[in-house]
Specification:
By secondary structure, this protein is α+β, with helices and mostly antiparallel strands. It is 45% helix and 24% strand. It has 4 domains: 6-180, Beta-Lactamase, CATH 3.30.450.40; 195-292, Beta-Lactamase (2-Layer Sandwich), CATH 3.30.450.20; 296-366, Helix Hairpins (Orthogonal Bundle), CATH 1.10.287; 373-538, 2-Layer Sandwich (Heat Shock Protein 90), CATH 3.30.565.10. The protein is built from 15 helices and 20 strands. The strands form 5 sheets. The chain has a 6-stranded antiparallel β-sheet, with helices on both faces. Strands 8-7-11-10-9 form a 5-stranded antiparallel β-sheet, with helices on both faces. The chain has a 5-stranded mixed β-sheet with strand order 13-15-16-18-17. Helix 1 runs antiparallel to helix 2 (34-49) and helix 2 (34-49) runs antiparallel to helix 6.
């Protein structure tokens, strides 16, 4: 038997409302998927208010359109995806004004959009629309249509506004959850795709995760790394590692340089590493990031070696020149006629020429690499180039008791080249052959014609060049392994290669280990032709 006491009726109604709101609020904790939450809320609205349909539309920030994303009841399939322009329909009005509205007779209201009613057999009689607000701004609308009683009262509007507040909480939670998930996805993407090796391990040093770069660096699968000791994997000193970990636990960022050994025959990696405490899935952990500085360290070592080499190469001829000049000065001051002045002058001049060639090669190197060298081409005899080069380095060969021979083909045509530059190429190659050949060895310098080119060669009886090094030795600073006793900048062959290629020629080496080496370079004859008056002209565009 129904109660007639107004107070009892009001109390029962209030209890029913509170029960409804409690049950509705529980929907929020069931899932963080926004569509599922809103669908459950609309199902609650439909059942509690006894309406034919209920729907939620959210504001699309990019277009400012109102898009119906969830609907339950009649014509729900047709409603989902419906888009309303700003101010269009009752829902559009609610978004613009931020106010709820009850429409007793829908088709009599100028604001009502008849699209769904026109496209389906659904007919809207009455509707209630309330805004969903986040931080005071309307971001969506809830609509309830066609109540079983025929009309909505003020209690229905008040209660649906409460549901809208719950929907706002659900939307806010879903947004926060999506931001967290997006941040996690971004971190995972950065973690896995980083060019630097990244590891995460717990405060005891047990590895929890590693990115792809670590797997490649250590050549070990992720399954093998996870659960292993960081200290053991990198073969670190335990005491030093624990000291670093103590600093990390205190919130300090620890930077170290580490060497990671690789398989036999491969160069070790030098890493500049950083360790810092991070939150990893709700637990304290340490993130280790390594940056490979092997090339930088090698370059710094190379720069230091180069400085020493250049000083050595400059000091030797400079020392010889100064010693000779000092002796000449002594001879003039003391009127000593026993000193061989012409021989001393010859030593000083040759040392000066060597110094000059070295400085020119260093200056030309950068210009050749940039393609900025202006070649001073003249017609030059290949025979004279070989003879001049041999004459310049002959004293060095004599000092090492080496034979210096020439093999020059007869009747060779002249070539249009920068004579001074090609002369330096030849002297560099002969100088290298003398340095790398043993005392008492033999060096042969020759020139002949091959097809449409003039071919020069320098052969020695030195240790030879391994096959794998025959291309690398022309690189800047390249030195053969096991030749530390031979001093030099490591720039000579680089200069030779660039100088020959600037003349559109080619340079290479042929060698077998223990059988000496022969360096060849060619200069094309097609670069020059003789004009009507006998003057050389360039036949190809430079």
């Amino acid at each position: 038997m129904a109660h007639t006491d107004p107070q009892v009726v009001a109390l029962e109604s209030r209890i029913r409302e509170l029960t409804f709101l409690h049950e509705t609020s529980q929907v929020l904790t069931a899932t963080l998927d926004l569509d599922d939450v809103l669908r459950s809320l609309m199902t609650q609205v439909r059942d509690y208010f006894e309406v034919e349909a209920a729907s939620v539309a959210l504001l699309e920030e990019e277009t400012n359109n109102l898009v119906f994303c969830v609907a339950v009841g009649k014509a729900s399939k047709e409603v989902v995806g419906l888009r309303l322009q700003p101010g269009e329909g009752v829902a559009g009005w609610v978004i613009q004004t931020g106010q709820p509205t009850v429409v007793p007779v829908a088709h009599s209201d100028a604001r009502f959009n008849t699209v769904i009613d026109d496209q389906t057999d659904f007919y809207t009689h009455a509707l209630l629309a309330v805004p969903i607000k986040v931080n005071g701004r309307a971001i969506g609308v809830i609509e309830a249509l066609n109540p079983a009683t025929g009309a909505f009262n003020e209690d229905a509007q008040r209660l649906l506004l409460a549901v809208a507040d719950l929907a706002a909480v659900a939307i806010r939670n879903a947004e926060l959850y999506e931001r967290v998930r997006q941040a996690e996805r971004q971190y995972e993407s950065l973690f896995n795709e980083s060019a630097d090796p990244i590891l995460v391990f717990d405060l005891e040093g047990v590895i929890l995760n590693a990115n792809q770069r670590v797997i490649e660096l250590l050549e070990r699968p992720l399954e093998e790394l996870c659960g292993a000791s960081f200290c053991a994997v990198f073969e670190l000193d335990g005491d030093e590692f624990q000291t670093a970990m103590a600093w990390v636990r205190d919130g300090r960022r620890v930077k170290r340089e580490m060497t990671v050994q690789r398989a036999q025959g491969q160069e070790a990696h030098i890493l500049e590493t950083t360790m810092a405490r991070v939150d990893y899935g709700g637990r304290e952990a340490v993130q280790w990031v390594g940056h490979d500085v092997s090339e930088r360290v090698a370059l710094e070592r190379m720069r230091a070696d180069l400085t020493h080499m250049i000083i050595h190469d400059l000091r030797n001829p400079l020392g010889s020149m100064m010693s000779s000049l000092q002796l000449i000065r002594t001879a003039f001051v003391e009127r000593d006629r026993t000193l061989p002045l012409m021989k001393l002058l010859g030593i000083a001049m040759r040392s000066g020429q060597k110094l000059y060639r070295l400085i020119d090669s260093l200056l030309d190197l950068g210009r050749l690499e940039a393609g900025e060298t202006d070649l001073k081409r003249t017609l030059v005899s290949p025979k004279l180039l070989v003879e001049e080069a041999v004459e310049q380095v002959h004293p060095l060969a004599l000092g090492r008791e080496q034979e210096l021979e020439t093999e020059i083909a007869p009747d060779l045509p002249k070539v249009l080249v920068d004579g001074e530059m090609i002369l330096r190429v030849l002297t560099n190659l002969i100088d290298n052959a003398i340095k790398y050949s043993t005392r008492g060895g033999r060096i042969t310098v020759g020139v002949n014609s091959v097809d449409d080119a003039i071919q020069f060669f320098v052969a020695d009886t030195g240790p030879g060049v391994p096959l794998e090094a025959q291309q690398r030795i022309f690189d800047r600073f390249a030195r053969l392994q096991g030749t530390s006793e031979v001093r030099g900048t490591g720039l000579g062959l680089t200069f030779c290669k660039l100088a020959v290629e600037a003349h559109r020629g080619r340079i290479w080496v042929e060698s077998e280990v223990g059988q000496g080496a022969t360096f060849y370079f060619t200069l094309p004859l097609g670069l020059a032709a003789v004009g009507e008056e006998g003057h050389p002209v360039v036949s190809e565009v430079e």
